[in-house]
């Protein structure tokens, strides 16, 4: 019997056109994300309802069909065709954290998620993070990576962990496009490179060299192609390269499999899926811009009057310093990137904790409301 701590992925291989077997499409406009089972479980909120691609070993035992990757074992149920591809497989599907859905969501009845919760957890409904599901569009045999690449490292980091590699990808700044669920937080110069459906972090060196000096917080610098040499590391669902050399290079290509057409169900409520600075970050630069990325397309007009910034008044009282107001700011929403950027007219005061609040009234384009949100970070010296 599975205990409550078991993390479950349901791999429902779908065929035909009946309602019970219709496929679903993730809301993410940036395309499918190559990742790992460990990253899905560690950052379920980020990957919820996103299209993903993972690699694992497909096995069958007395419990049923499962995916194995490293020490992570995830149960797989669904169409019997799942067992027709043995060994290492590459799975494309949509990731769902069932506890984040509402009971009346169409997917609950379509995929029998309430019954699944009762079977696995002995409860009618799971908490967030307890029942994690992939609705699979496709399973195919995983061809081994013959050489390191951004996709190879993203899909199979254990294969390259600790090795010295050289890979190429597009410069994406300090996760300016929400490619990654979190940062390794090694320095303020950490940045992301991306290739096809995959991305990873680069740490240890600034994106600077002969003929280039890129700003990790400037979108104008993104899109440049970089070749990175360094050692691969993976921990807690993140993959990064500790760089020893960075140089510009010519564009490279990598192929992702062609996928079947999918039909979208009703979309979920929007969420903030990434921020910079990150929650709780310290030593933030005084002239930092604040960026918040959303899981869905938002209504730009709904931000008006519902975005607030302030210094922590309680902290000021405890430290015996006079209260102060944050500088005025201008909020701009980038529809293409689903990102809200706050540009302040003057630097923050040093050693102050800044609070950014999104009040009720902010909505997605289909009027689904964003839950109230708060981000806190502390300015450095």
UniProtKB/TrEMBL annotation:
Pfam families: Big_5. The keyword Signal applies. Residues 255-264 have a biased composition (Low complexity). Keywords: Signal. Residues 254-276 are annotated as: Disordered. InterPro entries: SbsA_Ig. Residues 269-378 form the SbsA Ig-like domain. It comes from the Bacteria. The keyword Signal applies. Residues 1-20 form the signal peptide. This is SbsA Ig-like domain-containing protein. It comes from Luteitalea pratensis.
């Amino acid at each position: 019997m599975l205990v409550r701590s078991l993390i479950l992925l349901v791999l429902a291989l779908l065929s035909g056109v009946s309602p019970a077997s219709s496929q679903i499409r993730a809301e993410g406009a940036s395309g499918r994300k190559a990742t790992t089972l460990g990253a899905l479980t560690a950052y379920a909120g980020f990957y919820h309802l996103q299209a993903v691609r993972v690699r694992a070993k497909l096995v069958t035992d007395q419990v049923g069909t499962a995916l194995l990757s490293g020490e992570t074992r995830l149960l797989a149920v669904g169409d019997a065709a799942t067992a027709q591809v043995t060994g290492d497989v590459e799975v494309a599907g949509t990731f769902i954290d069932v506890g984040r859905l509402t009971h009346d969501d169409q997917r609950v009845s379509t995929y029998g998620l309430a019954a699944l919760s009762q079977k696995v957890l002995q409860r009618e409904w799971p908490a967030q993070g307890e029942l994690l599901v992939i609705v699979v569009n496709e399973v195919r045999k995983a061809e081994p990576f013959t050489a390191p690449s951004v996709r190879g490292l993203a899909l199979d980091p254990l294969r390259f962990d600790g090795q010295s590699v050289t890979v190429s990808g597009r410069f994406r700044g300090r996760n300016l496009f929400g490619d990654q669920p979190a940062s390794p937080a090694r320095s303020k110069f950490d940045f992301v490179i991306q290739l096809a459906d995959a991305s990873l972090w680069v740490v240890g060196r600034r994106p600077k060299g002969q003929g280039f000096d890129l700003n990790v917080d400037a979108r104008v610098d993104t899109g440049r192609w970089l070749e990175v040499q360094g050692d691969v590391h993976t921990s807690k669902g993140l993959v990064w390269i500790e760089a020893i050399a960075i140089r510009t290079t010519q564009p490279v290509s990598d192929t992702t499999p062609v996928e079947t057409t999918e039909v979208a169900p009703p979309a979920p409520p929007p969420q903030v899926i990434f921020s910079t600075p990150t929650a709780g970050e310290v030593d933030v630069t005084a002239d930092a811009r604040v960026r918040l990325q959303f899981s869905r397309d938002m209504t730009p007009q709904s931000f008006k009057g519902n975005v607030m910034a302030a210094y922590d008044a309680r902290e000021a009282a405890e430290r015996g310093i006079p209260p102060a107001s944050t500088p005025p700011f201008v909020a701009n929403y980038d529809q293409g990137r689903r990102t809200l950027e706050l540009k302040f007219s003057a630097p923050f005061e040093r050693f102050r904790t800044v609070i950014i609040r999104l009040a009720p009234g902010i909505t997605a384009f289909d009027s689904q409301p964003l839950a109230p949100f708060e981000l806190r970070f502390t300015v450095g010296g």
